User: Fold these one by one.
Assistant:
Number 1:
Amino acid sequence: VVFGIFHLSIDAGLFLGLFLFSDSLLFILSKVLPDYKSLLIIFLFFIGATTSLVLLFPYRTFKGLDERGVFYWTLFLLYILLSLIWSSNREYGYFKLLLFLVKGYFPGIVVFIVFKIFKKFAYRSLIFWGVIYSIVLLIYGTYEYPGRISLPGQNPIWTARSLILFITILLLYQEKSRLLVIWKIVLLCCSIYLFLKTQSRGPLIAF
């Protein structure tokens, strides 16, 4: 009712950006909470978002869930559940499952449904989360691996993957305003600098 009266809409890019650059948010939460509780908070957020969409827009939500992509996404989740059977370390397997649910399955479903309902997606939202990730990396980045920057407790390769995603988003983002073009160039230079500081070749080859 509120969305209908005030003609409000939600940008799917906000959810996708949170999903792509969630490591920065997880790190901030881990400053006050243990890692598993940080994951649990984000997990509950996406569960709540999914439930809210079902309650507010039941027809559109279930129509979106009827898409073939959602079906294959769920099949992949079932495969991961089955893989726990032959996992040599069951506890680590459960952690990886929770990680996929928090950073993959539910975010993917929410982004898809939000876009189906509101038909809104903006690159600026992705850039917003990418900037937050870069700022957190600049402030808290460590060199646990000699000469290679990363978020504390994170592999530099993971950091490089997030940065190469941010660089790709910036390159795809088209803006005619001169001020925003300058801002885009500055962000590109900063993110490329940070990427080079990770000294990771794999993500560069993938790019």
Number 2:
Amino acid sequence: LNDLTVPEGANVTIAITANTPVAATLAWDEQPHAVMNGGDDAHYVAEITATASDAFAIILADSYGHIANSERTYNFEVVEDFAPLIEPITPENDAKFTSEDDVTFSCKVTDDYAVDEIILFYAISGRPWEHVQLYKGDPKTWETIQTTVFGLSIPDLDDVYEGDVISYYYAASDNAPNRSTAATEVRFIEIRPEPQEPEKAPPGEGPPP
């Protein structure tokens, strides 16, 4: 067992194993002592919600009145849960595409707790915002870093024309008990004209003398 640093609101499990059945207690410096739940296998567990920093020792007492204290006190530091950090990857801000292009949206999200959800919001030339869920975490596989990629086909969008501007941003939430959400600044894509092929001169005509 080592000192612990955990985000505010985290649920922490402290588990120990004794060599004989005992009464096990977490002796906090500031908070009331907590009884560790155990069974006949001498395995003891305490479930804690991180609300404030403190320190604790472990006290074991057997049925004969013998008492043993842990060799040291363990620090339990509760730190602020920060909102996710979102790093847009593609497309570049103020990118230019034609109405026949496909656009790849990608971003990297990092969180001190775990990433739960990533959403892409977009709007076309001032129309109502629409959104696409790019990632949804699973409690069994939550990770602190997620990279997500989404392909948007401009031809599949309704009524997108030369001169339109697509506004978009990413939002992400963590899975902390007090859910934190962050969003990027709004970025823009300009729909430009299709490139025009140069006109070919009629056969037999050449440049003027």
Number 3:
Amino acid sequence: LPNRWNEFRKKYNIVEENYKINRDGYILYTLSNAIGWFGQHKEKNWIQNIDKNLKKIRQKTKRKIVIRLHPNNISYNANIEKKCPGFKKFINNLKKKYEINNTQPLGEIKNDIYAAFVVNGSICVELTCYGIPIFCIDKSFDKFICSKIAIKNLDLINNLQLEHLDNSKKTQFLEWVCSNCFFRTEIKNGALFKKIYEILSKKFNNI
């Protein structure tokens, strides 16, 4: 669906900011859901992968790193430990090395961030709207939605330049994301199902 980004911006009063580089800012490392589909199926070694990636980043830069937990993992419970053994101990160890910030919305800390590391998910869209450079160093990078916008060359982390970032590409990414989204009213009034029917009809008519 074309021109959806503008519709979403107007409806939800979203401001798309140009890329900026805060030389005095910190690196925000965002964690995926340890007990969600990604953590349980894609990242079967969730703890080891995070530890490995943080070590890779630290080898490239001495910049401060702040950790942001997935919203579903903020409140610890037995179910998390059951599905991700060692979770509590791992997070406690992270707290000894890094600051963990889940109390402030991204909108409040956006001007404090130099760059962010993401795996996948909606957070990469929000960070992109704020004009924050995002990196992804996961081995399955090419399969993620963030692959259309994230930087995968870790060598750039220590000296980001605006020439490494493309505002037009950022807008194209947001347009692409929104082209695959529907408003709740469109779901309720059947517009989503009509579109699905239209796509499937074309597909099967061409077989």
